[in-house]
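Folding Query — how this chain folds
Tokens — whole-number codes for backbone shape
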Amino acid sequence: MQKFIFATAVLAATAGPVSAAGKCNKHGAVVEQSDGIVLYLGKSCDATRKGGGTGKWWNAASFLGVMIGDDTYMVREEFDCLPFCESPF
């Protein structure tokens, strides 16, 4: 539980309000953020970033948390094509 609280706090502190546009595909969803970062969210709770890096994503109260390496992202869009993923912490 402490790791989840920590990860949520890290997301809130480091992931600024970035708007995103996403779409579903057969593997999950692709999210293009307004700052140019492209995230690929897989149906098995895996995440990758265009240009390199792999990690995990999970459902939080009002957003999707994404952690790739030392970077964290907050995706505020909902996707019907993605399953519910529990926090990896």
In short: The chain is about 15% helix and 40% strand. The longest strand covers residues 20-25. The radius of gyration is 12 Å. The chain has one domain: 2-75.
